[in-house]
Amino acid sequence: MMTRNRHLLWGKKLLTISRKEQLNQLKQDRSLVTLFLDSGYSNRNISLVLGAKDGFDAHVGSSWHMLIPYRREGYVSNIPIASRDYGILLSRAIIDEQGIPSAELPVILFENFGDESEYYYVSLANMSDDEIIRTIEELADIVVHESKNGRRAPDDFREDVTSKIKAHTNKKRILRFVKKSTSTTLGVVGAAAGFFG
Q: Using CA atoms, how far apart are residues 7 and 33, in angstroms rounded to an integer?
């Protein structure tokens, strides 16, 4: 059974993912797990993505968990937070670790099931609010379609979703690969445990 750290936010208990074991439990489900990363220089993108949470959750259900760095510890998913609670320091550590240029931010970081690199990302840079939401909706359509019609094994599902998202975003010229890294310092707990495993 997965236990999570609990904090109080808006008078409710907030469940956070702050240990690698918790993330591994989440990855056992037939779902896509990604990270939303931004620099925090502007509140615009963070507020936009966090504000779309209800629509996103209704669209994807449990087929996609977009983890949001949380300023107190770890990540949140499926829980509303205010933009002031976005974990800018954790986000910056991951951005730096993966060598993502500031001009590409914000991004959605994915685990790659191909040979090109360990991770790839979809850049949402220089998009209007409507374009960012539309891009996330298009990716969600792919995830939901595969969830309903794709292969049943979790790893097969993620491999198929990865392939289709890469094809779709490559056409739009918003797909980027991070350099192949032997490091596992993407921190679920600080910078000690690997993010995707």
A: 22
* Burial of 184 from C-beta contacts in 10 A (0-12 / 13-18 / 19+): middle
d(CA 34, CA 79) in angstroms, rounded, equals 15
* Residue ranges in the chain whose pLDDT is less than 70: 1-15, 113-117, 179-197
User: Does the predicted TM-score (pTM) go above 0.90?
Assistant: no
The pLDDT value recorded for residue 116 is 60
Six-digit token pair at 77?
């998913």
The Cα–Cα gap between 144 and 139 comes to 9
Rounded distance between C-alpha atoms, residue 41 and residue 69, angstroms: 15
